[in-house]
Amino acid sequence: MNRFRFLACAVLCAGLTAAYAQQSSPASNPPDPAAVAVAPVDRHLAMLSEKLELTAEQQEKIKPILQRMHDNSQAAANDESISSQERHERMHAEMMKADREVRVILTDEQKKKLDVLEQQMHPTQPSASERP
Question: Is 80 exceeded by the pLDDT of residue 4?
Answer without folding.
Answer: no
